[in-house]
Write a sequence for this structure.
C-alpha cells in the first residue's frame, strides 16, 4: 500500500508523533494490514507537505513501538504474525538500549528460521535446563566453546575454559581473583566504559596509557608499570571500543614481551575479535600463562545471550574464576548455553557472525557516502565510527539534535579514563536500524555538521 496518506489532526504536538499515531490507528481499523508496504519516506513527506526528516522520525517512532519493520532494499512494512501464526510482541521488540554498541541484527529469513529451529530443539530439554548446573559450563558446552575459540587460533585445555554470563561479569571475576581494593589497573587512555564502571565499583584505581595507530605505547606501559605497580593490564585490542583501531601483530609481540618481563597479568577483552575475517592473533596465544582471554558473544552473535568464553592462564586460576562467578552470578544460564552450543555445532553461529561482518562492511560504506566531509576514524569491519566534531560544535549539541532518531550516539566522556574529553562521539551503525533508515539519519547528521540545519 504505497499510496497511504494519513489524515493528521490539528495538534500542537510534534507532527512525527501524529504520523506514528495514524499508523497505529489505521492498523486498528484495518486500513493498514500486516505486510502492507508504507510509502517511501520522501514520497510521504511530499504528499503531506512536510520535511522528510519529520517522516523519518515518524517511521523510527513507529518501529520503536513495534508497529513497522524496515527490510533492507525493500522498504518499511506493517508488522504482523510470524510464519507459525504467533504475533510479535511489540513491547518486547521495541526494547533497545542505544547507549550500547549493537551489532547489526539478522534480517535474512532463512537465517532467522535456523535460529528459531535451534531454540525449538533446545526446548525439548527445557525442564532439565531450568536446574542449577555447573557454574562455568558443562563438558559439552566447553567443547563447543573450544571449537568457537579455535577460530581465534586458540586450542586451550577444557580445564582452563569457563563459560560466564557475559564479558562484564567475566572481567569482574578476573579482577576479583587478581586484586584487592585500592590496587591499580592500567588500560588504554580511551577505553570500554564497562571497565571504568567495574573499577569504580570494586574501588580500583584505573590509569590510562597513551596509544598510537598501532596500539598502546610500549614505553608508556613500561613507565606506568614502574610508577604504579599495577596488578593487571586491561586491553580491548581488536576493533577497540570506541576508536575501532586494531593493535598490530608487531605491537602485540612487543607488549607481550613487556608483560612477560614484569609478570603482569593481562585481561584481554576480545569482544570484537571474531568479527574481522583476518584479525591478528590474540595476545593470549603469545603470553598464555599471564592472560585472561575473554571471548564475548555479544558483538558477534547477540548481547541478549549474555555469554562469554573465558580462557584462564591455568587450571588453578580457572578454579578461582569459577568461585568468583559463583559469588557474583552463580552461573551462566544453561538455557542460553544450550542454544549457543546448538548454534555452534550446526553452523548457525558462524552464519550469524558472517552476517554481522558483511552487514558491517555495507554500513561502513553508507557512513563514508553520507558523511563525506566528516572527520571520523573507523574500520571497514567495525559497526561504529569514532567522530571528531568540527570546530565550534559541542557534543551535547549533536546529542540533542539527534535525540529520538534511533541512532546510537554516545559522547566521549564515557570512554576517557582521565582528563578532559574531546568533542568526539561514538556512533553505532548497527542495532535494529535498517540500512535505509541509517542512510537518512546519517544524511541528516551530515547536513547538520556541514550547515547547522535543523528541521522539525
Amino acid at each position: 500500500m504505497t499510496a497511504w496518506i494519513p489524515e493528521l489532526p490539528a495538534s500542537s504536538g510534534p507532527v512525527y508523533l501524529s504520523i506514528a499515531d495514524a499508523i497505529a490507528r489505521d492498523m486498528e481499523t484495518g486500513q493498514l494490514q500486516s505486510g502492507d508496504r508504507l510509502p517511501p519516506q520522501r514520497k510521504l513527506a511530499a504528499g503531506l507537505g512536510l520535511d522528510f526528516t519529520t517522516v523519518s522520525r515518524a517511521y523510527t517512532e513507529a518501529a520503536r513501538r513495534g508497529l513497522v519493520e524496515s527490510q533492507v532494499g525493500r522498504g518499511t512494512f506493517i508488522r504482523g504474525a510470524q510464519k507459525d501464526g504467533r504475533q510479535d510482541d511489540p513491547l518486547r521488540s521495541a526494547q533497545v538500549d542505544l547507549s550500547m554498541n549493537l551489532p547489526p541484527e539478522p534480517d535474512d529469513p532463512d537465517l532467522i528460521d535456523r535460529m528459531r529451529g535451534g531454540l525449538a530443539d533446545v526446548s525439548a530439554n527445557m525442564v532439565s535446563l531450568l536446574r542449577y548446573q555447573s557454574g562455568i559450563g558443562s563438558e559439552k558446552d566447553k567443547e563447543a566453546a573450544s571449537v568457537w575459540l579455535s577460530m581465534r587460533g586458540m586450542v586451550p585445555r577444557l580445564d582452563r575454559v569457563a563459560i560466564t554470563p557475559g564479558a562484564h561479569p567475566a572481567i569482574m571475576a578476573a579482577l576479583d581473583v587478581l586484586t584487592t581494593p585500592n590496587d591499580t589497573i592500567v588500560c588504554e587512555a580511551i577505553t570500554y566504559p564497562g571497565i571504568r564502571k567495574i573499577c569504580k565499583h570494586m574501588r580500583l584505581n584505573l590509569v590510562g596509557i597513551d596509544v598510537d595507530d598501532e596500539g598502546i605505547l610500549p614505553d608508556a606501559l613500561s613507565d606506568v608499570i614502574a610508577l604504579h605497580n599495577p596488578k593487571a593490564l586491561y586491553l580491548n585490542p581488536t576493533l577497540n571500543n570506541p576508536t575501532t583501531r586494531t593493535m598490530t601483530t608487531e605491537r602485540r609481540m612487543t607488549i607481550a614481551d613487556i608483560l612477560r618481563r614484569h609478570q603482569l597479568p593481562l585481561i584481554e577483552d576480545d569482544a570484537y575479535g571474531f568479527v574481522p575475517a583476518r584479525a591478528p592473533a590474540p595476545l593470549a596465544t603469545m603470553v598464555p600463562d599471564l592472560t585472561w582471554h575473554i571471548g564475548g558473544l555479544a558483538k558477534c552473535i547477540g548481547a541478549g545471550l549474555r555469554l562469554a568464553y573465558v580462557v584462564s592462564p591455568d587450571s588453578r586460576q580457572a578454579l578461582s574464576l569459577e568461585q568468583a562467578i559463583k559469588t557474583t552470578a552463580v552461573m551462566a544460564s544453561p538455557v542460553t548455553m544450550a542454544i549457543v552450543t546448538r548454534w555452534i555445532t550446526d553452523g548457525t553461529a558462524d552464519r550469524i557472525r558472517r552476517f554481522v561482518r558483511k552487514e558491517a562492511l555495507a554500513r561502513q560504506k553508507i557512513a563514508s557516502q553520507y558523511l563525506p566531509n566528516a572527520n571520523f576514524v573507523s574500520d571497514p569491519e567495525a559497526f561504529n565510527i569514532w567522530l571528531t566534531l568540527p570546530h565550534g560544535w559541542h557534543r551535547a549539541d549533536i546529542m540533542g539534535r539527534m535525540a529520538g532518531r534511533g541512532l546510537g550516539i554516545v559522547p566521549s566522556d564515557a570512554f576517557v579514563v582521565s582528563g578532559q574529553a574531546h568533542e568526539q562521539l561514538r556512533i553505532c551503525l548497527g542495532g535494529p536500524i535498517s540500512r535505509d533508515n541509517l542512510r537518512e539519519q546519517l544524511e541528516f547528521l551530515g547536513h547538520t555538521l556541514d550547515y547547522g540545519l535543523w528541521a522539525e
Q: What stands out?
A: The mean pLDDT is 91. The chain has 17 helices and 15 strands. Residues 69 and 77 are 5 Å apart (CA to CA). The two ends are 26 Å apart (CA to CA).
